Amino acid sequence: MRVYVPLTLSGLAAAHGAGEVGPGPLTAYAVTPGLREWYVSDDIEELEYAALNRAAAASLRMIAGNPDEVRRRVVVAVDVPDGSGTVADPDSGLSAASLGEVKIAAALPLAKAAAVHVDADDAEKDVTAAAAALGAADLGDDDAQFTVDGAEDHELLWFGVQEIPQLIG
After folding, report:
1. For residue 60, what is the enclosing H or E element?
2. Closest Cα partner for 102 from 15, 5, 21?
3. Which of 51, 91, 100, 130 is the most exposed place for a label (fewest CB within 10 A)?
4. Over its length of 169 residues, how does the chain's per-residue pLDDT go in tens digits?
């Protein structure tokens, strides 16, 4: 099973230094039954893309919570044995806040990561605006939600694990 772990650039630097993403428990995103039902697709690539985007949204929340953080979303994709991730809240149904969310009990070795997904430099302006607007968007402000959606318009770039030193340098 592939899980998508939201991070920040400083979190990626810490994971690189430690050789693992952790400590556990970790919140990650994966193709869960709830995500499948919400997304209404049988295409695994589309479902994994949806899980990746859920993790990117969680990364944005991490960024919004730390004014000193670089304004680029980061997601690490890691393959874990089936059953390693438990649905975070099985009673949440199709709650938008928890779609695809899983808990991973232990730290994940960075060497097991399949890829790292990071915003391009040109996304920083929109990610900065989205992080600032997130609170108002959560309260139902449509203009703020439009700003948050602006960050989601940027595709995360794919990087191999061996490229992490250049990303955090």
Report:
1. helix 44-64
2. 5
3. 91
4. 899 999 999 999 999 999 999 888 999 999 988 888 887 777 889 999 999 999 999 999 999 999 999 999 999 999 988 776 676 555 555 556 678 899 999 999 999 899 999 999 999 999 999 999 999 999 999 999 999 999 999 999 999 999 999 999 8
DSSP bridge partners of 29: 4, 101
Closest by CA position to 159, among listed 58, 72, 66: 72
Cβ atoms of residues 70 and 9 within 8 Å: yes
136: Cα within 13 Å, side-chain hemisphere: 14
